[in-house]
Amino acid sequence: SAGAGAGRVGATPGPGLGATGLITAACVGSMSWMQVSLVSASPGRVVCELRVEEEHTNRGGTLHGGMTATLVDVVSTVALLHTERQAPGVSVDMNITYMNAAKLGDDVLITAQVLKQGRTLAFATVDITNKATGKLIAQGRHTKHLGS
Q1: pTM of the model
Q2: Where are the beta strands (DSSP E) in 30-106?
Q3: Which of 66, 46, 64 shows the shortest CA–CA distance to 110?
Q4: Can you state the angle between helices 18-27 and 65-81, rounded to 10 degrees?
Q5: Pairing between strand 36-42 and 45-51?
């Protein structure tokens, strides 16, 4: 657990929050509207949590595919920001495999891991799972150009 630095992403970090505070600060404006909370962070790995609310759902009352894609995009970028290089990059390729539905009221965990960071490209994977059951909801891969 991230301890004192955990909480709704977008909160203003206080002094002494270290990496978690930096990640929280980096997310202001990016994830606060999504109601995502930071659970834990380590170099190149970030875990966030989201309760599926009505504004996150499609007509069927489940997590909207576009919201899932946004979670993959944003949380993988936060994982990249939590590396020594701290470069967000720009998206080159992103794919998502949707496996199960998350229903209104479900809590989901979004785990992003940087797989490789080279000179110009970075590769990340994101697993979105149901917090209660551990069932995999979606899995994403994100490739980002970091510049030269």
Answers
A1: 0.81
A2: 36-42, 45-51, 90-98
A3: 46
A4: 130
A5: antiparallel
